Amino acid sequence: MIEILYIALFVFGSLLVKVFLDLDRLKEDRDYIIKEVTQTQKDITNLNRDVEVNKRWLNSLVIEVNKLKTSKVITIDNVELPKDFGKVETGEIKVNNLHDGHYKALGIEPWDILKANMTYEEYKGFLKGNIQKYLHRNKEGLKDYEKLANYANKLVKEVKEHDSNNTNNKG
Length: 171
Known about the structure:
The protein folds into two domains: 67 residues; 100 residues, no CATH class. It is mostly helical. About 8% of the residues have low confidence. The chain has five helices and four strands. It starts with a helix and ends with a helix.
């Protein structure tokens, strides 16, 4: 009978040790999770601050660009943009009547920025991708088809310009 009691005490003691070890592991896991959550919250705060700083910088840049009274090109970080980049017309569709509010505030045609930072083939792919996007999207009805036509007109214009420049260069 005493042997069974010793065995029971040994098993109970082993279980008690295991419970305490598991509790310690759970406390370590909890501390690690709290540390990671705290760091993530700090990272989100820093990202939000960076977004606000960049937004203010971009707004001040747009204001300065809009103040310019020159017909020459504007250089931003060695990228030349035409002064009238916000007033582009292609085909029968005027770009300005298709822009949502967030583009109007930008003051720069996003496709002009992309064109300045891409090769001709990359830029052509961007235009083709947007044509596909608006062809298959059914979010804004007719407006989507107008946007599709806008990108198609822009693609035609870019290809004509590229082909014309390459023909003129070959001489």
